[in-house]
Amino acid sequence: MSQLEKYPRPSVTVDLVIFTIVDDDLKVLLIRRGNEPYQGLWALPGGFVGIGESLEEAAARELQEEVGVRNVYLEQLYTFGEPERDPRGRVISVSYFALVDAERQTIAAASDAADARWHSVFKPPRLAFDHRKILDYAVWRLRNKIEWTTVGYELLAKKFTLSELQRVYEIILQRPVDKRNFRKKILLQGQIRELNETRSDGAHRPAKLYSFKQ
Amino acid sequence: MSQLEKYPRPSVTVDLVIFTIVDDDLKVLLIRRGNEPYQGLWALPGGFVGIGESLEEAAARELQEEVGVRNVYLEQLYTFGEPERDPRGRVISVSYFALVDAERQTIAAASDAADARWHSVFKPPRLAFDHRKILDYAVWRLRNKIEWTTVGYELLAKKFTLSELQRVYEIILQRPVDKRNFRKKILLQGQIRELNETRSDGAHRPAKLYSFKQ
DNA sequence: CCAAAAGTGTTTCACTTACACCCATGA
DNA sequence: TCATGGGTGTAAGTGAAACACTTTTGG
């Protein structure tokens, strides 16, 4: 233990960029700070890593505490460790991003007691610490990820229509997507299963429902 | 400071995966451990993050100390924080990977005093801690990266031939690369400049030299 | 003149993009 | 019957992959 004791230790936190889609917009959960520093500004939810807890466990615990959800998509982003990033002392932040789906985000809304709120990712308020940098990085990562992987499904309910999925892509990428090419690409991936159900929604043809495999 | 003081703090280290190419092989720098735990096993070079030092600075300092090089390509990889990864206590490791070019790796060899050595990445010895996982992740990242970016140049001297660059790709990807397609792709990228020099190397046609722009 | 690495184009195939109309429903 | 979003196919273009011979040099 000698080597370990010789050095002053920084504090280590996890900070979460929790995304969801509401009202046709990509949202991030922010918390209004009640204390100095940066009192009154908005910040990413986060907290200290327990001494017996893995980083991923700490992130999952925060997610549970702040949003009341479990088993959502969670991925480590980057570790920020500039010595001056927190004026109170040396704090190293391991950032994660999470995707909360449409079904469970209502639970999240419940936790919106007073000082937690969904904000548009594309015009966020001024953020505390270096959280704007973290947010920007998370958005960049999400955009890349959605093009190469299937994370898009994490933002939808279990059953969804192809139009809903297309909207997720358009909202994240902030550009229109061609309907026919999109459907071709998604169906070719073979990652979704067509269900024997449709959803009627107003005065037009009902849409087929699909579910994500695994 | 109250919040910061309330929690027991983990130790934070940086661990480095330092790559270079020697003898037609991708190598990683490893250090033989002189103390418990894992005495006698090989480990990635690394060390504690100084309290006033950014993570990147700590990584650059380690690189300087271990390999004697500065201003090489350095990129944060991932942060490993399982509570049991170090039997001496809670140690969170921020890993970086570095690319040391052919010209400067001779300096590195000098530092190979007794217990530091270049090992083949593809058949490494048994590693201490979770360093095998870190190494595997770094190799995976390097392979992806070389396909989408221009990091390959970081492993070569300032002036190089296209065949040398091709070898870098073949060694990292561990598969043969078509000469004509490779040259077409690289030249189309517009990232290298043809020099008015050639290099003669034995009884055959001399190769044109190129340099990387910026 | 021989051995050895450098250098060079064309064809094929797969994937991406652009694009417009009919369908099923509720009001 | 009309308005609304759901659903479908084809042609053109772009980028990746396969592939073999000539050039320049030193010995």
Features:
alpha+beta; 10 strands; DNA-binding; 30% helix; homodimer; 214 residues; 7-stranded mixed sheet; 3-stranded antiparallel sheet; Arc Repressor Mutant, subunit A
Quantity of strands of chain A, as a count: 10
What is the first-to-last residue Cα distance of chain A?
44 Å
What's the architecture of the largest domain in chain A, going by CATH?
Alpha-Beta Complex
Any idea what the radius of gyration of chain A is? Answer: 19 Å
Largest sheet of chain A: 7 strands, mixed
Can you identify the CATH superfamily of the largest domain in chain A? Nucleoside Triphosphate Pyrophosphohydrolase
Q: Return residue spans of chain A where pLDDT drops below 50 for at least 5 consecutive residues.
A: none
Count of alpha/pi helices of chain A: 6
Query: What is the CATH topology of the largest domain in chain A?
Result: Nucleoside Triphosphate Pyrophosphohydrolase
Give the fraction of residues assigned to helices of chain A. Answer: 25-40%
Oligomer: homodimer
Quickly count the domains of chain A: 2
General form of chain A:
elongated
Write the layout of secondary structure elements.
Two copies of one chain form a homodimer.
Chain A: H1 2-6, E1 11-22, E2 25-32, E3 42-43, E4 46-48, H2 55-67, E5 73-80, E6 91-99, H3 105-110, E7 116-120, H4 131-148, E8 159-160, H5 162-173, H6 179-189, E9 192-199, E10 207-212
Chain A binds a DNA duplex (27 and 27 nucleotides) through helix 6.
Describe this structure as you would to a colleague.
Two copies of one chain form a homodimer. The longest helix of chain A is centred in the middle third of the chain and has 18 residues. In chain A, strands 1, 2, 3, 4, 5, 6 and 7 form a seven-stranded mixed sheet that branches. Chain A has a three-stranded antiparallel sheet with strand order 8-10-9. The model of chain A has no long low-confidence stretch (mean pLDDT 93). With 214 residues, chain A is an alpha+beta fold. Chain A has two domains: 147 residues, Nucleoside Triphosphate Pyrophosphohydrolase, CATH 3.90.79; 57 residues, Arc Repressor Mutant, subunit A (Orthogonal Bundle), CATH 1.10.10.10. In chain A, a hairpin with a 2-residue loop joins strand 1 and strand 2. Chain A is 30% helix and 29% strand. The first copy, chain A, is built from six helices and ten strands. At the A-B interface, helix 1, strand 5 and strand 6 of A face helix 1, strand 5 and strand 6 of B. The first copy, chain A, binds a DNA duplex (27 and 27 nucleotides) through helix 6.
